[in-house]
Amino acid sequence: MHIRGHNIIVIGTSAGGMEALCRLVEPLPADLPAAIFVVQHLAADSNIDFLVKRLASHTVLSCVKAQHNTHIEYSAIYMAPPDHHLLIDKKHILVARGPRENQFRPSIDPLFRSAAAFHGAQTIGVTLTGFMNDGLVGMNAIQRCGGFTVVQDPADAEYPDLPRNILRHMQVTHTVPIAQMGELLTQLVHQPSPDSVTVPPDILLEAQIAQRIMINSENANIEDMDKLGKRVPYTCPECGGTLWELTKEKDNVQRFRCHTGHAYTDQSLLANMNTNLEETLYVAMRTLEERRSMLTGMAEKELGNTKWANMQRQRADEMKVHIERIRRILEAATISDQEHQHRREAG
After folding, report:
1. Is residue 64 within 8 Å of residue 77, measured between CB atoms?
2. Is residue 195 annotated as a catalytic residue, yes or no?
3. Does the annotation mark 14 as catalytic?
4. Which of 86, 104, 124, 228 is the most buried (most CB within 10 A)?
5. Domains of the chain, residue spans
């Protein structure tokens, strides 16, 4: 049987990620026989050239912004550009805007999923400091394909939410502080990986669907979506389309996808729903405020018909009641979110 090393390393991080990345890459040798791909959650207007330059100052490896349709080279670090997803196939780097996944672009899951689908057991997935759980689905895919999964010790992470969520839902290969991770990855790269491990059909199909959507701007066909999961009575918060639940029997997290390409874990779907609900309530409150103001103004300007003017004032008072109800709902939701965040940080 032909034996190969682990020559694809994919790294996902969010808040606090640049500092962690700089520390991770410092001990990596110049002849590392692997390519490293990095997704960090970034604002759309982030200066990627500055970030690449900063990371390059901490490593002897080549460090560049990922470019679409370029060949994968070893001993190199490729960073996802802002507002674009980063994927890979067998030989090439793929960069495209595409629909958001888990509310992010770039998102960690598309990179991890593509690495698992096209490089299988040769992949090492790494998750560092950050928020939410983007990367959990991708780490699970890498594990199912026989690759290594490495997570920064939450106690060592500046923002422990992301690594903690990974560890809460799956058993990873290694959990280490960032100071030990560079040496660990160097060792793992040289460990043999059999090329006979079969990639599960659902992982390959989802990776192919995502690639067609992101690269070719093609919607997934319904037949393929039905193969991946079952339709559920929810709509996509971003496009209003039908959602499919892709959760498998052995999966450790609920997840969803629409045929235009938006994808969510249960946590990110709920967060997106909450955001949309909050926006809708603020619009409703503003509309009621405007209506109340109009009714009050009409009543004040009516001089000849006291009965009609009083009727408008009564309607304006009714609007005030509705406005206060919505305001209390929004205040209660804010308090609930704060309490939930405190419990997460404590636990």
Report:
1. yes
2. no
3. yes
4. 124
5. 3-194, 219-261, 271-346
Nearest CA-CA partner of 180 in 20, 40, 61, 41: 20
Catalytic residue among 6, 41, 84, 119: 41
Q: Kindly name the residue from 89, 109, 134, 156 that is annotated as catalytic.
A: 134
The pair of three-digit structure tokens given for residue 36, joined into one six-digit string: 């490293």
- Give the pairing type, strands 8-13 and 123-127: parallel
Q: What is the amino acid identity at position 115?
A: A
Name the fold adopted by 3-194.
Rossmann fold (3.40.50)
Strands (E) located in the chain:
3-4, 8-13, 35-40, 62-65, 70-71, 76-79, 85-88, 92-96, 123-127, 148-152, 174-176, 193-194, 230-235, 242-245, 255-258, 263-265
| Number of residues written out for the chain | 347
Distance from C-alpha of 148 to C-alpha of 174, rounded to nearest angstrom: 8
Q: Which amino acid is at 87?
A: L
41 flagged as catalytic? yes
